[in-house]
């Protein structure tokens, strides 16, 4: 099956990016080095092409009401032009995907979903939509999406003409806000969101020409092109979950330390009855190694070298220069002494258990 390409595919190749298949797309994995790209995002500003993500538009008199029912987190009472992160669950509480819903108004909501789950999400959401006065449109092929991340991201958006200086200085566009911007006759959507733990923005553009111009001008003004490998390290350093790893079809939000996204006080949402009485089977743990690099699927052991769980994501932290990982441990086997070990091939390494993210990002 031929891979899909984003509108920036040729630009990535010109920059000699290492390309690889991801969720049915040919995507840039890295340009120079993961270390350089991660450091650029943490200290300056990096730019990512994440146009493979899916976008669904919900319109109609019950748009906000429908999305509130669809997801576990609060949405209906949220102010206009705000974004909400949430799992999307079945009636049995298991996670179909995690997403961000952007509330433009009670009559208009944009939903951004993971690239690997576009069809699955579309089938589920469109089926649920039949019960509400809404129109659902798949706009995944209509938008390109750029993520501009790092402490210098606001300055870069000002240079690109997307933001105004006073908006940044007066903090009138806070974290998890969105706005529509008219740029060269095109209506783009800008969100102060991201997947790196740093301050940053995500720019939804309907114009291929504008996307290409914004990409090239961002580079000219100091933005470092970054690939999906750096994006994965960045999100893991700040302990953001990734669908297919910490979240999956057999996992509930309560198993993955996302209780804060499940608002049982809401009148109704899909999975509410089940989740209200559900006792989690797993506990998400954050484990760091001084030696060795943990990888997905490696066994997590207790001090008796008994298997109690699996690593769901693991990598070498660029900022800490040591192995870091997230893992799911069976709750009934969670060690009282909080001593954990990770098996890497034939070797067993003691891991440092921590409750806070490995690295504190600088998001506002």
Q: What do these coordinates show?
A:
The chain is of the alpha+beta class and about 375 residues long. Among the domains are: about 140 residues, Gyrase A, domain 2; about 70 residues, Aminomethyltransferase beta-barrel domains (Elongation Factor Tu (Ef-tu), domain 3). Helices cover about 20% and strands about 35% of the residues. The strands form 4 sheets. The chain has a 6-stranded mixed beta sheet. The protein has a 6-stranded antiparallel β-barrel with strand order 15-18-17-16-19-20. A hairpin with a 2-residue loop joins β11 and β12. The longest helix has 13 residues. The radius of gyration is 21 Å and the shape is globular. The N and C termini lie far apart (about 40 Å). The mean pLDDT is about 95.
Radius of gyration over alpha carbons? 21 Å
Largest sheet: 6 strands, mixed
What is the CATH topology assignment of the domain at 4-51 and 143-237?
Gyrase A, domain 2
Cα distance, first to last residue?
A: 42 Å
Strand content: 25-35%
Summarize the structure.
The chain is an alpha+beta fold and 364 residues long. Among the domains are: 4-51 and 143-237, 2-Layer Sandwich (Gyrase A, domain 2), CATH 3.30.1360.120; 281-354, Elongation Factor Tu (Ef-tu), domain 3 (Beta Barrel).
Topology record:
Elements: E1 4-5, H1 9-14, E2 18-22, E3 25-30, H2 34-43, E4 46-49, E5 54-59, H3 63-70, E6 82-89, E7 95-105, E8 108-113, H4 118-129, E9 135-138, E10 144-149, H5 153-159, H6 165-169, E11 178-183, E12 186-191, E13 200-205, H7 208-220, E14 224-226, H8 228-237, H9 272-276, E15 282-289, E16 299-301, E17 307-316, E18 323-330, E19 340-344, E20 347-354
Parallel strand pairs: 1-3, 4-14
Antiparallel strand pairs: 2-3, 4-10, 5-8, 5-9, 6-7, 7-8, 10-13, 11-12, 12-13, 15-18, 15-20, 16-17, 16-19, 17-18, 19-20
